[in-house]
Each structure stands twice: as C-alpha cells, then as structure tokens.
Amino acid sequence: MFEIAFKKSVFNDLKRIHKAVLNRIFNKLENDLLKRPEDFPELKGKFAGLRKYRVGDYRIIYAILGQQVLVTRVSHRKEAYD
After folding, report:
1. Per 3-state DSSP, what percentage of the chain is helix, strand, and coil (rounded to 5)?
2. How high is the pLDDT of residue 79?
C-alpha cells in the first residue's frame, strides 16, 4: 500500500474547492488512488512523468515516488494543465 504526500502548493488549490467536493476527492484518494496509483494515465509533453486521476470535473495530478504518491496539483479540469 502507498502513502500520500502533498506538495505545499496543493493546500492553496484545496482552499478554492467547495467542502462537499473536497470530501468526495479525499474519499476517492483513499479508496482508489492509494491502492493502485499505477493504474491511472500518464501525462505527456511538459507533464511527462506525472499521472492524472479524475474525480468529476476535478483532476489530481501526482507522481509515484517509490511507495509514496506525491500530489502536485488538485484543480478544476479547465485549470489543471496551466
């Protein structure tokens, strides 16, 4: 099983998201992403080496570092790749 870590900038991303959506995101993180993070798509181009996980209209951008999942961004799909 993997453990989760957040980049400091992610906390700013989370402040902008409604609490109900945050609950859904964290439930999905615990139930899906921590159990099998390698199952989700890898990104290409300038985001090569990162992966994405979709929760409704929100995207969780993360990297797998050994047994750790490092979340680098959580944002709406329109802003996730800026």
Report:
1. 35, 35, 30
2. 87
Q: How many CB atoms lie within 10 A of CB 29?
A: 19
Can you list the domains of the chain with their CATH numbers? 3-76 (3.30.2310.20)
| Residue 43 neighbours by CB distance under 10 Å | 16
In terms of Cα–Cα distance, which of 30, 1, 46 is closest to 60? 30
Show the low-confidence residues of the chain (pLDDT under 70). none
What's the pLDDT at 34? 86
Q: What is the pLDDT of residue 33?
A: 86
Asked if residue 2 lies in contact with residue 68, where contact means CB atoms within 8 angstroms, the answer is yes
DSSP 3-state of 33: helix
Residue in the structure block whose two tokens are 């959506």: 21
Which pLDDT value is given to residue 58? 94
